[in-house]
Structure to design on (129 residues):
């Protein structure tokens, strides 16, 4: 079976979470009740060729990043999914990092560049009260 390794970078700290597609799908179903969700990549993948797997990986990465970008307040179920305990208020410069494909036994990993995502423009200071 296929596992996606999610790199979560928050407040300068990095950790990894491994999730199967079914866990993404379960998250999507729960999130739909609370927020407007982006499209999630199709549940059914006909063939397990690297190109198709890479498209699914990119789709899931985009899914997570879109949820973060479009929601000022992230639902607890989303934070739990990413294994995030505490969300600092300002400045929000967290990232959803990148994914690595990891196969169960054999290590036919694809190499990926990490992706950094800023929720607000990191070059604009928050207004002084």
């Amino acid at each position: 079976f296929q596992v996606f390794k999610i790199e979560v970078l928050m407040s300068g700290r990095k950790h990894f979470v491994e999730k199967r597609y079914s866990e993404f799908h379960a998250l999507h179903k729960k999130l739909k009740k609370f927020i407007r969700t982006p499209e999630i990549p199709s549940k059914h993948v006909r063939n397990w060729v690297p190109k198709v797997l890479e498209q699914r990986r990119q789709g899931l990465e985009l899914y997570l990043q879109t949820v973060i970008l479009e929601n000022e307040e992230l639902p607890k179920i989303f934070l739990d999914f990413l294994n995030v305990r505490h969300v600092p208020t300002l400045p929000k410069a967290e990232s959803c990092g990148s994914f690595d494909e990891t196969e169960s036994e054999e290590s036919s990993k694809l190499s990926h560049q990490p992706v950094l995502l800023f929720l607000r423009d990191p070059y604009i200071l928050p207004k002084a009260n």
